[in-house]
Design goal:
Helix content of chain B: 40-55%
Strand order of the largest sheet of chain A: 2-11-10-6-7
Number of domains of chain B: 4
Largest sheet of chain B: 6 strands, antiparallel
Order of helices and strands of chain A: HEEHHEEEEEEEEEEEHEEHEEHH
Number of domains of chain A: 3
Structural class of chain A: alpha+beta
Strand order of the largest sheet of chain B: 9-12-7-2-18-17
Helix content of chain A: 25-40%
Radius of gyration of chain A: 32 Å
Strand content of chain B: 5-15%
Chains: A alpha+beta (329), B alpha+beta (660), C alpha/beta (310)
Number of strands of chain B: 20
Structural class of chain B: alpha+beta
Number of helices of chain B: 24
Oligomer: heterotrimer
Largest sheet of chain A: 5 strands, antiparallel
Distance between the termini of chain B: 61 Å
């Protein structure tokens, strides 16, 4: 246990050192400055095999056994270069991070480019907290991958250093590198279903305005067909001698909904944000304009994707520590 | 760090099978037949599983298979054959593992053991073709290793082999370097190779017909490399043992105390230095050109009283040693009473008629040893025939030979000659060994085959010591001058054991050349590869001068870094963008120069816009700049670019560069 | 022949310049857009001369033009036309709307409802109008000049982003330079002069020019540059969505037209740079989390980051 703790501490220190050597940038080409390489466990086993073969050669004074041992030894050495070159020259560009809800995986788009004459196989990409992604780059000289990272809590998800490693072609060595990307993704509060829409505080002039009749917008004419209500005949048009037409109306339900921070007094801060997040998602599916009131900030009602994103972002970054909000600006 | 269990691709499974077959194939030369059959069955099973017709076997079936193989191994191998037993065990284990490979870990176990098994073939056979097979096996196993690390979803049968070649061929120079420089260490503990059947060759005793049996075989006995010129054919007598006792029928070696020092030797000529590469005999004796000066650099060889070389242990593998010999010498000037008695002793009752004949000739020669010897050789010359197929001889074989058949092979002449000398009271003994040999001009060595086996006589004469007299030379002088194969080429007894031997058809012309060439290559292989430890020190001294650790490390590191640098360049060289176009290159240089002068081009500026800006800052250059911009625009974006334009543009760029 | 044709277009730039003082750049862009066979969106405050530009353009090119002032109570039928029941024949007869013309000036397009907007945009995209199950082809050339007020103005329905790229270009006219404005003030309103503009190019010549432009040479170096530019918008951190392949094609088409208008037979990077903002400005979207990024700033960044020479 203690040793495990110590080694993981050491690994972090090495990683920190490696990252200091390579400051964050949007686009990185892997060179020897960044690539580290060490034998793997199966590489160690291979060395043991070489040792056994050498013993065999020595004890039987067998020169061909020596030769075979040295051939495999040469292969061991050459495979260092092969493993190294399976990483070197690769260009990685951090493209963007995609928002998600807390508890899900945030996706980050990376673009990989290879020099025309080089191929890369079995590259293993991973964030510190996220599933690895294995990839061969033998076809297109440029691919985009989406690499997921666990996003446990709301706010900005900064996935930490990106690790790229490979054991190809013989598994004897592992070449790896850490890259600091400046990628981040917005993590919305995890939706917490339940609760009713709170009654809107009346007296502010805004809020629930239900107008069933008289407020519908006239949107066009259609041909009058038997059976239609005579009240819908466009008499003005008929009077101009342009025939029988029926007016079409579009029902604009001008219910302006407000989501209010104070709507669920029983919940604590995070739960409230989650509840609000749930309602934003639900209301985004309807066509009704909705707004949000947070302490100190009011987002007027609107519809559409932009509104949904704006509100979710506000919820995600609500009362976060200074540094995180700074990052927003 | 927890590693998830990794499946391997279907192509990888096929590669495991290929690797397994490649590793087992060279071992077929020694393996008991049931092991390859068992392996074939396992491969068939794996293929059935691979094609989805069978499922992976139940553990009880695996247990049963393991018991079967264990029983088979116990029945087939005993303690004497520990090595072949071990290798068989590994091979069978691999074949059983074949049934299990599904995950990367299993495949890795299989591959690493396969590397080991592939190498063990050298403990059984070390010919060139075996080395080639082993290299192929390693190549295929490496391909299998690569296939294991491929994308499990990817089915690409060819790529692993390509990868394998790309790593193994650059490894060959590294292998050669290490092979040349790696110090050869004495065995850390003693190991035993398996004994196998007896080999043809000389034996401890010599009875009539023994040596003529050897002419049936064309097998190699030993090879000799001389430091200087080889001796003339008439002096190529290779001493193996001395038969000093005669029991009436066969000659045998005396059991001498090894403590006795060798008979004294006075060399009368500059000693020849040479190296002998002796094939396995299963016996103790070694070979030396008449007359060895000392046991030289032979590690466990001993010079016996009769100046033959004997190894302390039996020779179970090819042996290399260096010797010095003098072809003109005086041996054993003094003969003690004991020895005189021993070398004149003959059973009183044996071969009475020959004894009588000797007595008569001895008297005719006036009891003068040299006249007696001349008379005997004259007799052989006149009356006797040299033949490969002497008639059978019963009791009193010398009597029959001398007085009835008068036909025989070298052992008959040597035996009878020594007998008759002893009968006259002159000390004599028979020497067994080889005579002659085939000179290989390509590699400069002498090859002695079993059919070169020979027997001759040594006579002790007062004041001269032991003198070599070859009675065969009196009967058939050409036997000594030429090689046996030219003498007896058409004799049905010659090479009777190898009826289709290549030696039969390669006695002359192109075929002979080819055979000699092949044998030469083989010899070089044996000398420089299989017995490299014998040459290493000398070779490295020639190349590096005084051997020091520093020099050795330098000799290793310099070429190795060259090789690795080359590989790295091949692997990575393509990353840097090389501007091949001279115009681009010149332009690039010019822009760099301008940037240094403080007028850098902005990224969004095209060359034309840049030139226009530049022309304002440097009015003196405005004309060439404008011209350059125009030409470059035509080149880069226009439709009509011609070589002349390019040349003109290049000139302009250079002119601008110069005038800066 | 081709030179002559180009010269005619060159002359028409000068002719238009008589009315639109000090706006040569915008005139060229508008003609480029017309030559490329795309539609033009002019975004600016009221009173900047949007309508004047549209009218003069139609006049100089001898095209039939109609003007529609979009209002919030406008219906799709008011633009596309309407089928009217005729009592005499007992049948419906189609009354074509103003869209059936060669140059349509859609004034203040963002004042009307999304429904009406998309009716027009669909007609622009397909070059035909489908009503009551009947398809009617619009005349060629069909060129829409839409004007819109800046989105921040009150009482507007911004054009949906997905439909913005129906317009090949989006340009702004901007305030006149002081000396130009002074001339404007002294000479008086130039709008009366529109009627005195001469027709410089015939419809046939316009169609011919559109064909010729397809043959303007774009070398591989230029295509490389274009690709680098487009690529940058797709991965640059300031962009939330980059230029689509359709946008890249539009860019090349406009650069060709611009080059031809300049009298060249090949495209140079400057051509591309000139049309870059008008063509891609409305196709890219600044990343949400970076405040204050306008498309103009993004294009400027794009130009300064992507090297012309590789």
């Amino acid at each position: 246990m203690k040793i495990g703790h110590w080694t993981s501490g050491l690994r972090h220190r090495i990683q920190a050192w490696a990252l200091r050597r390579s400051p964050a940038s949007r686009s990185v080409t892997l060179t020897q400055k960044r690539i580290y390489i060490l034998p793997t466990l199966s590489g160690m086993m291979f060395l043991l095999l070489l040792f056994l073969l050498l013993l065999l050669a020595i004890n039987y004074q067998n020169n061909l056994a020596y030769a075979a041992t040295f051939l495999l030894g040469g292969m061991f050495i050459v495979s260092i270069l092969h493993t190294y070159s399976n990483l070197a020259g690769l260009r990685i560009t951090a493209v963007s991070g995609h928002p998600c809800f807390a508890g899900e995986m945030a996706g980050f788009t990376l673009k990989l480019q290879r020099p025309e004459k080089r191929v890369y196989e079995q590259l293993d990409f991973s964030w510190q907290e996220g599933p690895p992604l294995m990839l061969d780059m033998t076809g297109d000289t440029q691919v985009q991958i989406e690499l997921a990272c666990h996003a446990p809590s709301r706010g900005w998800c900064q996935p930490g250093p990106l690790r790229i490693q490979t054991r190809y072609p013989f598994g004897l060595f592992r070449a790896w590198t850490w890259i600091n990307t400046d990628l981040r993704a917005l993590v919305y509060p995890r939706p917490l279903p339940g609760g009713d829409l709170p009654p809107v505080a009346s007296g502010e002039g805004e809020g629930l305005e239900m107008r069933h009749e008289g407020s519908d917008d006239f949107s066009g004419l259609t041909r009058f067909e038997p059976g239609m209500s005579p009240r819908r005949v466009a008499w003005k048009v008929f009077a101009r001698g342009q025939g029988m037409h029926a007016s079409e109306y579009v029902a604009h339900h001008d219910r302006k909904l407000w989501l209010d921070w104070d709507g669920w007094p029983a919940l604590n801060v995070e739960q409230r944000l989650s509840r609000l997040s749930y309602w934003v998602v639900r209301l985004a599916h309807t066509n009704q304009p909705y707004g949000l009131r947070l302490p100190g900030k009011v987002y007027p009602p609107a519809t559409g994707d932009a509104q949904r994103q704006r509100l979710l972002q506000a919820l995600a970054l609500f009362r976060l520590p200074e540094t995180q909000v700074e990052a927003e600006r | 760090m927890k590693q998830p269990v990794q499946q391997i691709s279907r192509a990888a499974v096929v590669w495991q099978l290929v690797a397994f077959v490649a590793v087992v194939v060279p071992h077929l030369i020694w393996m008991p037949f049931w092991i390859p059959l068992f392996c074939l069955a396992m491969i068939a099973c794996r293929l059935m599983i691979h094609s989805g017709r069978w499922s992976f076997p139940h553990w009880s079936i695996k247990l049963l298979l393991m018991l079967i193989t264990a029983a088979g191994l116990l029945l087939t191998f005993d303690k004497q054959s520990l090595l072949s037993g071990t290798v068989s065990l590994l091979v069978l284990g691999l074949s059983l593992k074949l049934l299990e490979i599904y995950h990367r870990r299993d495949a890795l176990v299989l591959i690493y053991v396969a590397y080991f098994v592939a190498t063990t073939i050298f403990l059984f056979e070390q010919e060139m073709w075996v080395a080639l097979l082993c290299f192929i096996a390693i190549l295929l196993v490496t391909a299998a290793l690569n296939s294991v690390w491929q994308d499990p979803q990817r089915i690409d049968y060819k790529r692993p082999l390509v990868q394998s070649c790309r790593v193994l061929f650059p490894a060959i120079p590294l292998m050669l370097l290490l092979f040349l420089l790696f110090p050869r260490i004495e065995p850390l503990w003693s190991v035993q190779l398996d004994r196998s059947a007896a080999v043809t060759g000389l034996s401890d005793t010599m009875a009539p017909g023994d040596i003529s049996q050897l002419t049936r075989s064309g097998a190699m006995a030993f090879r000799v490399v001389f430091d200087g010129e080889p001796p003339p054919p008439a002096q190529r007598y290779w001493r193996a043992m001395v038969y000093s006792q005669f029991d009436g029928r066969q000659w045998s070696q005396a059991s001498l105390q090894s403590s006795q020092s060798a008979e004294s030797l006075i060399t009368l000529s500059e000693p020849l230095e040479y190296q002998i590469i002796q094939e396995r005999t299963g016996r103790n004796w070694m070979f030396a050109l008449d007359m060895p000066v000392s046991s030289g650099q032979v590690t466990d060889g001993v010079l016996t009283r009769t100046r033959t070389l004997e190894s302390k242990s039996t020779i179970e593998s090819r042996l290399h040693y260096r010797l010095q010999s003098s072809t003109a010498y005086q041996l054993g000037a003094d003969l003690s009473g004991d020895e005189r008695a021993r070398y004149t002793r003959i059973p009183a009752s044996s071969n009475p008629r020959t004894q009588a004949l000797s007595e008569q000739l001895w008297q005719d020669a006036g009891q003068q040893p040299d006249r007696y010897i001349d008379a005997l050789l004259g007799l052989f010359n006149r009356e006797f025939t040299y033949t490969l197929q002497p008639p059978r001889m019963e009791q009193h074989s010398i009597d029959q030979f001398m007085l009835e058949h008068q036909r025989g092979f070298c052992e008959h002449f040597a035996g009878a000659f020594a007998f008759m000398l002893r009968a006259a009271g002159i000390p004599a003994r028979v020497v067994g060994g080889y005579q002659g040999g085939e000179w290989n001009p390509y590699q400069g060595y002498l090859l002695l085959r079993q059919y070169d086996a020979h027997a001759w006589t040594e006579v002790w004469l007062e004041g001269e010591g032991w003198v070599r007299i070859d009675p065969t030379a009196a009967v058939a002088p050409q036997r000594i001058e030429q090689s046996l194969d030219s003498l007896f080429a058409d004799d049905p007894g010659f090479l009777a054991d190898n009826p289709v031997s290549a030696l039969r058809v390669t006695r002359s012309g192109v075929m002979l050349q080819l055979r000699l060439y092949y044998e030469g290559a083989n010899f070089a292989w044996h000398r420089w590869v299989l017995h490299y430890q014998g040459e290493q020190e000398q070779l490295l001294r020639n190349w590096l001068g005084e051997l020091s650790p520093l020099r050795m490390i330098l000799a290793l590191m310099l070429p190795a870094s060259f090789v690795l640098g080359w590989v790295a360049w091949m692997q990575l060289g393509q990353t840097a963008t090389i501007r091949r176009d001279p115009v681009d290159r010149a332009l690039h240089r010019l822009l760099k120069r301008l940037a240094k002068k403080g007028i850098p081009r902005h990224p969004e500026e095209s060359l034309q816009a840049y030139c226009a800006r530049l022309a304002q800052e440097r009015p003196d250059l405005s004309k060439p700049l404008r011209q350059m911009a125009l030409l470059d625009e035509q080149q880069r974006y226009g439709q009509n670019s011609s070589p002349e334009h390019r040349r003109e543009l290049l000139e302009l760029i250079r002119a601008c560069h110069r005038s800066l | 022949m081709s030179d002559l044709l180009a010269q005619k277009f060159q002359n028409s730039v000068d002719e238009l310049g008589k009315v639109l003082l000090g706006k040569e750049q915008q005139i060229r862009l508008a003609i480029t857009c017309l030559l490329s066979g795309g539609h033009l969106l002019i975004e600016d405050l009221p009173g900047m001369g949007k309508t004047t530009l549209a009218h003069s353009l139609a006049r100089v090119f001898g095209l039939a033009d109609k003007r529609v002032q979009f209002t919030s109570d406008m219906l799709p039928a008011d633009i596309l036309g309407v089928s009217v029941f005729e009592a005499a024949t007992g049948q419906f007869r189609f009354h074509p709307g103003p869209v059936f013309t060669q140059v349509l000036l859609a004034d203040e397009i963002n004042r009307t409802t999304p429904k009406t907007q998309s009716a027009l945009l669909e007609a622009m995209e397909e070059g035909q109008v489908t009503q009551d199950g009947e398809t009617r082809v619009l005349p060629t050339p069909f060129f829409v000049i839409a004007t819109q007020n800046p989105v921040t103005q009150y009482g507007t329905f911004p054009l949906p982003e997905s439909q913005l790229d129906r317009f090949l270009m989006r340009i702004a006219l901007g305030y006149p330079a002081p000396e130009v404005e002074r001339r404007l003030l002294t000479v008086g309103d130039t709008r009366q002069q529109i009627d005195s503009l001469q027709t410089m190019v015939t419809v046939q010549e316009l169609m011919q020019a559109q064909k010729v432009i397809n043959e303007v040479h774009a070398s591989s170096s230029l295509i490389d540059y274009l690709q680098r530019l487009v690529q940058y918008t797709r991965e640059g951190s300031g962009f939330s969505s980059g230029v689509s392949p359709r946008g890249a094609l539009a860019l090349l088409r406009c650069a060709r037209s611009w080059a031809w208008l300049e009298g060249r037979e090949h495209v140079v990077p400057e051509d591309l740079q000139r049309v870059l903002e008008p063509v891609i400005g409305h196709r890219i979207r600044p990343a949400e989390d970076i405040a204050g990024h306008t498309s103009t700033r993004l294009v400027a960044e794009l130009l300064s980051q992507v090297d012309v020479m590789s």
